[in-house]
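Run log, item B.
One chain of 320 residues. Sequence copied directly from the ordering sheet:
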Amino acid sequence: MNGFLNSLELFLQVSAQMGTHVLFATLGAIMGEKVGHLNLGVEGMMLMGASFGFSVAYQTGNPLLAVLAAALAGGVGALIYAFITVTLRGNQVVTGLVLTIFGTGVSGMIGKSISGLALPDSITAAFAAKAIPVLSDIPVIGKMLFDQSIYVQMALVTAVIVYVYLNKTSIGLNTRMVGENPAAADASGIGVTLYKYSNIVAGGCLCGIGGAFLSLVYVPSWQDGITAGAGWIAVALVIFATWNPIRAIAGAYLFGALRGVGFKLQGGIPFLGGVVISSQLLDMLPYLVTILVLVFIGLRKKKENQPPKNLGNPYFREER
């Protein structure tokens, strides 16, 4: 029994680690979509955050500066997106795709100078897993939540903050109103453009921080394409979470658990006589399950599962 419990705790601990970067990115995407903007550039912003975060970490040895640099890189990418889609009223889908291509190129350019480098001890020590006394001894969830890198715990706190911001504050109410009906929000005296810019850029910062988790904590080194499509999973998990930051935690950790299962089964399935499954099939498992969940949610026509009414539509004040 103790052996099973220890295995379960370890599995949940790894699941949280593997889902942290996706959680940050999902929260960032939720903030953008709540003001009516579908940003498909999440992958690009994550890559920019990962490359800039690693570069600053290597040069300064300061973990705080590394995270801030990652946030700034993701925020700049989001600012470019916001300028094109909010001010110039460009197509949101095309702009997001271009942002992903742009972020991939920028990260590849920076990656040439940081490939093969090792992070300073000050960075690895700062982000190393540390057990919180008493709390880490709680059965099942203790190691999952309280025997982790501070980065993992920071993601959970961020999810709660974003939830409170969107659902328990007047500013959050205005944010949701902008996403539902920007014309009505504008007529009520709400600064639609300001809300759109601030939420899109803040979401980009979260995406950048999520990307930096991979290069600063999870790997930690630089690899081209280090996000491995996590940005696209984050876009899908926004729907899985029904635009709810708390549900995003479950979605991100489910993705992490499926990744963990894939790694665990690469050596074979014990109860089937050690049958070995193709590694490509195991890598596909998290993405396949994500698609199936999205199909299931799409079939349930509940009001709370629907996106903001003005999602993806540019706002023309002159047509109000």
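Observations after the first pass:
- Residues 133 and 146 are 8 Å apart (CA to CA).
- The two ends are 65 Å apart (CA to CA).
Flagged for discussion on Thursday.
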